[in-house]
């Protein structure tokens, strides 16, 4: 079966699908990933096919309007939808081009344009989401708030936001469906149809982190994480290997795809926090341009596979993106989440609730004092490392990619 995975977003939104794609390929499927063009080399290096999607997300976020998007509010979510909607027509065309000759579309949470493409082509589709998107009474919408609105309010808010979030894309969707001779469909009707049909949707996180809500629709299952493919031939830089060998395990600090107006100022706060906590540090610049002065106790690094680096850390300070959160849990180390927007506060809240973190330090409230106190707690209070180790043992027994493969095989048997 020729499978196209539509993975829209930052590197953390793409990387887990490389491992999933390789698992599917090992089972005999022909797999390609459709993602933003800057990820072409990365995806191809794993041996998977690649189809480009428009938009440079880093460039979009590293602007004054992008900084306004990186906030936690319904207004920021609307700005994020509007930012993507400006590329909606090009995104629809690129998704359709990527799907040529495909026999199955697998869609990330932001790859939903593929629903209409799959319907138009008469092929099956399924969800492979990294964050909870179905409405539930058990917790509020993961993209907006961590404060419960009550059972009815949680579910109602998720449905309303899901529907409203489609409005900026209506004209592009209408044109796409007309291209395939399909009638227009309102967002509410689309989601109702998906729920009633039992549309298959595999959530790529552990049930030990987010148990499957009892009121999710049939077809939506929490299957466990899938992991980024190993990068062929990668070796740690000698400077990093020497630094790790020269002293006790350090603390990693990196904010992934989050951008910052002043990377130097943020870097100074991070350096101050590490000094206050009395720990060595591995600092990754990331999209924030995090600037930290290297020295005997701090080393600055570029891209380093989290699967290799995190198990060697005393703790991980990260932005609480879905992929980085998963990597830290897999490594069995305590975490200090520094969430900014979208689903990040949700994951920060989750890892605090399950006992692997002393609690979040919001991205826009980072100070040397606040972050230093949290880092000190993470590395000195044994309960966080012990619980992180227990969670890592559970996660190691799960086979999220295998569960997806079984769904794919079931879909293949029907075609």
Automatic annotation (TrEMBL):
It comes from the Bacteria. Residues 294-398 form the Erythromycin biosynthesis protein CIII-like C-terminal domain. Keywords: Transferase. Residues 3-139 form the Glycosyltransferase family 28 N-terminal domain. The keyword Phosphoprotein does not apply. SUPFAM superfamilies: UDP-Glycosyltransferase/glycogen phosphorylase. One of its GO terms (molecular function) is UDP-glycosyltransferase activity. One of its GO terms (biological process) is carbohydrate metabolic process. InterPro entries: EryCIII-like_C (IPR010610), Glycosyltransferase_28 (IPR050426), GlycoTrans_28_N (IPR004276), UDP_glucos_trans (IPR002213). PANTHER family: STEROL 3-BETA-GLUCOSYLTRANSFERASE, STEROL 3-BETA-GLUCOSYLTRANSFERASE UGT80A2. This is UDP:flavonoid glycosyltransferase YjiC (YdhE family).
